[in-house]
Specification:
alpha/beta, Spore Coat Polysaccharide Biosynthesis Protein SpsA, Chain A, 8 helices, Glycosyltransferase involved in cell wall bisynthesis, Glyco_trans_2-like, transferase, Nucleotide-diphossugar_trans
């Protein structure tokens, strides 16, 4: 892998009330960031323009002409970060639920194991919606089934560091969900390809600006369909795993 170079990528869609604080937290960590405007409305677009201008060149802005979904925005951020010479991307959500004070811990873990995905394992406070919390456990079970492993503690956390080379190779060869199914699908498919996953506990608060773009009906249907695809993908891989003695760890 080339010399380690990290860029923070923040997908943004109408989070004009929370994004400035998140940018401040990222810059305080000593890292530059790329804001991906995922077709936000005029109010948020104006805030992003002001942030990019005030903090140039440490804050860059990539504007998508129409809303692509969280996954589409992150994928666009991956491509732009690679173009700018990054070897790794730290993804963090714009809504303030993640603690940018933990960035240093994530980066230290990534430096120690640069080939791994460093994945946030949420430590929730009382603000977490109970329906969202319980729903995550169903996804956890499906991910453990589809990987035959407990290696991925939380596949839905939007705070993680990716090594770019295996990610870019994956997205060239396979179609990854572009909305709220993205975080789950990409980490499972990277794991299938032998990319190690390290889990790092991190505090999660829901959300500082009161904006969530998770559509309970559409996104749950989309995620259920994705789990079905991954399950059949696991079944296709199962004979090879068994042949090589791969089993579920204790």
């Amino acid at each position: 892998m080339a010399a380690y170079s990290l860029m923070v990528v923040i997908p943004v869609f109408d989070h004009e009330h929370a994004i400035a604080a998140m940018v401040d937290g990222v810059l305080a960590s000593g890292h530059d960031c790329l804001l991906v405007d995922d077709g936000s409305g005029p109010a948020c677009a104006a805030v992003l323009d002001a942030l990019a201008q005030a903090h140039a060149p440490r804050v860059r802005l990539l504007r998508l002409p129409t809303n692509q979904g969280k996954g589409g925005a992150v994928l666009a951020g991956f491509a732009e970060a690679a173009r700018l010479g990054a070897s790794h991307v730290l993804q963090i959500d714009a809504d303030g639920q993640h603690d940018p004070g933990d960035i240093a811990r994530f980066v230290a873990a990534s430096h120690a194991c640069p080939d791994a995905v460093i994945c946030g394992a949420p430590d929730y406070d009382a603000s977490v919606p109970k329906g969202r919390l319980y729903g995550r456990y169903l996804t956890h079970i499906w991910v453990w089934i589809n990987t035959l492993s407990f290696a991925i503690r939380d596949s839905m956390c939007g705070f993680r560091i990716y090594p770019l080379p295996p990610v870019l190779k994956l997205v060239k060869q396979e179609t990854i969900g572009r909305r709220m199914d993205f975080d789950i699908e990409i980490i499972v498919r990277l794991f299938w390809r032998g990319v190690p996953v390290q889990n790092l506990l991190t505090r999660v608060t829901y959300p500082s600006d009161g904006v969530s773009h998770f559509d309970v009906w559409r996104d749950n249907v989309r995620i259920s369909r994705m789990h079905t695809r991954l399950f059949f993908g696991m079944l296709r891989r199962l004979p090879g795993w068994l042949l090589h003695g791969r089993g579920m760890p204790a």
